[in-house]
Design brief:
By secondary structure, the protein is mainly α. It is built from 13 helices and no strands. The longest helix is centred in the C-terminal third of the chain and has 32 residues. The chain is globular, with a radius of gyration of 21 Å.
Length: about 375
Amino acid sequence: MRPRDPHEPGRSATPLELLFDLCFVVAVAQAATSLHHGVAEGHTGAAILGYGLAFFAIWWAWMGLTWFASAFDTDDPLYRVKVFVQIAGVLVLAAGVPRAFEDRDFTLITFGYAIMRAGLIAQWLRAAKANAGLRRTALRYAGGVAALQVGWLGLLAVPAELWIVGWLVLAPLELWVPWWAERAGATPWHPHHIAERYGLFTIIVIGESVLAATIAIRSAIGYEAIPSDLLAIILSAPVILFAMWWLYFSRPAHAFLSASNRTAFLWGYGHFFVFAAAAAVGAGIGVLVDEATGEAHLPAVRAGQALALPVALYLVAVWTLHLRQHAAGRSEAAAWLVAAGAVLAAPLTGWTAPVVALVLSLLTALAVATRRAAPSSETDPSELA
C-alpha cells in the first residue's frame, strides 16, 4: 500500500468509491426523513438536535475513508474487503438512525460506527506497515481512531441524560485526530480527487431533496383541482434544487485546496454544514407539503422556516467555503448575504417556496454573469468536480 501521487493526472473517483457513497444514501435518507417528521409533528428542537447528532456520525464516517482513499487507494483485493467491512458498518449505522431520533437510543449507530472504524483502523495499520516515511502519521490515525471508538462504546454504559455530555467531549476529539496525525507527516491526498469526492457527495444530499420534490408531486394525485399552495411547491422545488446544484458547481475548488493543509481542513470540515443543510432542504420541502395538505401540526410561517433556514445555511456555507476564494469583489459577497437574508424572510410572505426559488434563480443568474466576466485564465468549467 504505497502513497498515491498527489499530482497524478486524471485522478478521479473509482467505482468502489461510488458504491461506498451510494450506501450513504440510505443513512442520509433516514436522517432527513426523521427530521421531516419531527418538525411536521411540532417537535422542532428535538428533531434538529437528533438530526445534527445523526448527520455528524454519517458525515464523519464518510470523511474517514474519503481522505484515506485519496492518499492510499490501491484497489487490490485486501483493500476492497476492508472497504466492504466499512460499507457493512454504514448499513448498520443507517438502520440505527430512526431509533436515535425516536428514543435517543444510539446503540445501533454506535455499533455500525464501530464496524466502520474497524475497517478504517485496519487500513491505517496496513499503510503504517508499508510506508516507513508515513508510519508515525498512520499509527497516530489508527491509535486515535481506536481510542475514540473505545470511548463511543463506553458511552453506551452511561445514563441516557449524560450521553450528550460525552458526545460534546468525544466529537471535538474526533475532529482533532487528523490535525494531530498530519503534524507527524502530511498524507499525499489529491486536491482534484478530494474536490470531486465532495462534489459527488453534494449531489447525493441534494438528491435526497429531489425525493422530497417527488413526494410533493405524488401528494397532488387525487385532487380534482390542485391547491394553489401545493402547486407552488411542486413548481418551485425543482428550481430550488437545480439552483443549489448550479451554485455549488459554478466554480472549481481543487485549485485553492492545495494551498495548505489548514485550508484543506477548514474546507473539508466546513462542508458538514453544506451537506447537512442540503439534505435538510428535502425535509423542509416535505414539511411544506404536509402543511399544504393539512398534515403538519405547526403554523404556516414555521413550516416555511423549515425550508428557509437550511437554504440560507446552504448559501452561507457554500459562499464562505467554496466560492469566496473566487470573489470578484465586495458586491458579489453582498449579493450572497442579501440572498440569504431574503430567503430567511420568505416565510413571512406566505409563499415560501416560490420566493426562495426566485431568490436562488436570481443568484444563479449573477453567478453565471460573474463567471463569464472572470479572466480567461481561470480554470475551465470542464475541470469542475
